[in-house]
């Protein structure tokens, strides 16, 4: 049995550990103890924004085994529609391959619908072919070409 709940400040270390625990994350994150203050400040901004939901997933013994962030973006197109964006989906390394990701996406899809979003979108790094296949198997379609501009 998995429990989905809004993250609290005590969860930040577990969340950052999961997002740093892969080849790409380890290059851009700074997981250490104590955590750098930037993570705590970011959590406070996320937590105070009604259009942001940082979620943790617990197993039956209340260990955090997954995380995701949903952002709800209001815009004028689609007759003033709401777009849900899912980011930072991670599953603890020792729990991967057990179907948890599919359960997390089912939850996120339902949550986006509850918030009256007309679509759920995501981006994924092209260096993650297994993730791309996973998203396609869930029904996500590659409909647009995404582009980013990083600032240093």
Molecular structure report:
By secondary structure, the protein is an alpha+beta fold. It has one domain (3-138): Gcn5-related N-acetyltransferase (GNAT) (Aminopeptidase, 3-Layer(aba) Sandwich). Helices cover 35% and strands 24% of the residues. It is built from six helices and five strands; from the N terminus they run βαααββαβαβα. It has a five-stranded mixed sheet with strand order 1-2-3-4-5, sandwiched between helices. Strand 4 (82-91), helix 5 (100-114) and strand 5 (119-122) form a beta-alpha-beta unit. The radius of gyration is 16 Å and the shape is globular. The model has no long low-confidence stretch (mean pLDDT 94).
The total tally of domains equals 1
CATH architecture: 3-Layer(aba) Sandwich
Cross-sheet strand order for the largest sheet: 1-2-3-4-5
Radius of gyration, in angstroms, nearest whole number: 16 Å
Shape: globular
User: The CATH topology, please?
Assistant: Aminopeptidase
Average predicted local confidence, pLDDT: 94
Largest sheet: 5 strands, mixed
SSE arrangement, N to C: EHHHEEHEHEH
Distance between the termini: 42 Å
Task: Put the structure in a nutshell.
The protein is of the alpha+beta class. The chain contains six helices and five strands. The chain has a five-stranded mixed beta sheet, with helices on both faces.
Features:
152 residues, alpha+beta, Aminopeptidase, five-stranded mixed β-sheet, 6 helices, globular
């Amino acid at each position: 049995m998995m429990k989905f709940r809004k993250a609290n400040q005590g969860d930040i270390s577990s969340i950052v550990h999961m997002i740093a625990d892969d080849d790409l994350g380890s290059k851009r994150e700074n997981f250490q103890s104590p955590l750098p203050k930037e993570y705590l400040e970011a959590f406070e901004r996320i937590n105070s924004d009604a259009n942001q939901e940082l979620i943790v997933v617990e197993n039956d013994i209340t260990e955090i085994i997954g995380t995701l962030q949903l952002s709800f973006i209001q815009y004028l197109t689609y007759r003033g529609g709401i777009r849900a964006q899912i980011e930072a989906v991670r599953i603890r390394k020792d729990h991967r391959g057990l179907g948890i990701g599919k359960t997390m996406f089912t939850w996120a899809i339902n949550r986006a619908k509850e918030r009256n979003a007309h679509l759920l979108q995501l981006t994924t790094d092209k260096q993650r072919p297994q993730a791309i296949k996973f998203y396609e198997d869930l029904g996500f379609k590659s409909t647009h070409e995404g582009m980013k501009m990083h600032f240093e």
